[in-house]
Amino acid sequence: NAGVTQTPKFQVLKTGQSMTLQCAQDMNHNSMYWYRQDPGMGLRLIYYSASEGTTDKGEVPNGYNVSRLNKREFSLRLESAAPSQTSVYFCASSMWTANTGELFFGEGSRLTVL
Amino acid sequence: RKEVEQDPGPFNVPEGATVAFNCTYSNSASQSFFWYRQDCRKEPKLLMSVYSSGNEDGRFTAQLNRASQYISLLIRDSKLSDSATYLCVVNPNYGGSQGNLIFGKGTKLSVKP
After folding, report:
1. Rg from Cα positions in chain A
2. Which helix (H) or strand (E) holds B56?
3. Contact A65, A18 (CB under 8 A)
4. Chains A & B: contacts with CB separation below 8 Å
């Protein structure tokens, strides 16, 4: 069972370059999320998509864009990477009812911006 | 006051010990609560939900105290494999928002032989 698959797992960028992180889930989940995790900061929500065709900003959306391509796929784009975007990025999905709280995470994408 | 606060640790305990973690949350309207586990350089995974009456899963017991706005996780008979970071997670249920779980920064546990 693949679950949530993220690509790439590692990436090094130069300041100003752009890139897209890809995420796909095979659990027929309605909701998908992008988080970043930094040392001492915990997980912070960048964007989420409660259902196909909708996206909403999370806590730290600046510098990012997202696309919910279909029910399975949710991509995160950095248009002009900055060193402050060096982080580990996690994609997650859930069926979501208000109280279930179970998110299924991908293995993470480690991004370094020089 | 930060939304979800945890003692970062590390908690260094011997095998077989009992260890407890606490977590406080600031939004009294929060509806649901969870503990996640994250191994080093891995993704977080749900350990257990926290119910109002308290709940137990094997060696793990979770408690919720709404009056004091804290959640606890008790691990009995610690195993080496319990070494991980434990994340306290709260659904603040802002206006019915479905997306915004709030994660604590985590408490690191290291179980030694």
Report:
1. 13
2. strand B55-57
3. no
4. 63
A110, A88 contact by CB (below 8 A): yes
pLDDT tens digits for range B1-34:
568 999 888 999 999 999 999 999 998 888 789 9
* B82 min Cα distance to partner chain A (Å): 20
Cα distance between residue B50 and residue B57, in whole Å = 11
CB B57 within 8 A of CB B51: no
Inter-chain residue contact A42 with B105, CB threshold 8 Å: yes
Segment (H or E) for A113: strand A109-113
For position B101, what pLDDT does the model report? 85
Q: From residue B51, give the alpha-carbon distance in Å to each of A111, B54, B62, B96.
A: 37, 5, 8, 19
| pLDDT digit string, tens, across residues A12-37 | 999 999 999 999 999 999 889 999 99
Q: Residue A97 pLDDT more than 60?
A: no
Residues of B in contact with A40 (CB under 8 A): 105
The SS3 assignment for B94 reads: helix
Cα angle for residues A38, A20, A76 (degrees, 5° grid): 60
Q: How far is CA A4 from CA A83, B45, B70, B76, B109, in A?
A: 27, 12, 31, 32, 26
- pLDDT of B98 over the 80 cut: no
Pairing of β B44-50 and β B32-38 = antiparallel
Instruction: Specify whether the CB–CB gap between B79 and B111 falls below 8 A.
Output: yes
Place of tokens 């928002």: B97
